[in-house]
Amino acid sequence: MAKASDIKNGNILRFNGELIAVEELIHRTPGNLRAFYQARMRNVKTGKLVEYRFRTDEEVEICRVETSTYQYLYSDGDFFVVMDNNTFEQHNIPKILFGDAAKFLKEGMNVIIAFESDEPIMGQAPTSVELEITYTEPAVKGDTSTNALKYATVETGVEIKVPLFINQGEKVRVDTRTGEYIERVK
Prior knowledge:
Layout: E1 2-3, E2 12-15, E3 18-28, E4 36-43, E5 49-55, E6 59-63, E7 65-76, E8 79-84, E9 90-94, E10 110-116, E11 119-124, E12 128-136, E13 149-154, E14 159-163, E15 171-175, E16 181-185
Antiparallel strand pairs: 1-6, 2-3, 2-6, 3-4, 4-5, 7-8, 7-10, 8-9, 10-11, 12-13, 12-15, 13-14, 15-16
């Protein structure tokens, strides 16, 4: 067990039986009161924000988290099967750890996964991916007002909005955090 004064931003703590990531930690010394640490933390599994005041001598459990790059192999039900790039071990990772970015993952991509004692706790997809347009309606000539968008289906099956000049078979870069079109890839 560690003391609250040992906590750093980015640490993963076991707090009330849940894993939480410390986003911000401020040491406060108000006037004639005792000093304390004001922490803003996020639940790793649910994403819920938690604020808490730690006494300076309060004991906390800092978890040892190992983060590494893995290669996404394929989808298997509610899990993604990934392979360690160094040891070639395969792991089943729940899809919910990736959030909305899961629908943009393509086989062979590298993803970052954090483990806490052999349990996957976080999954992070690349911030942008290159995907091929598998279906989109052709643009109508003269229908080119500013910022006009149309729907297009990418190779992972997700429908996104793209500019009118994008055609079927072209590759586009998509932001996995928002699902928005970034640019056409040559």
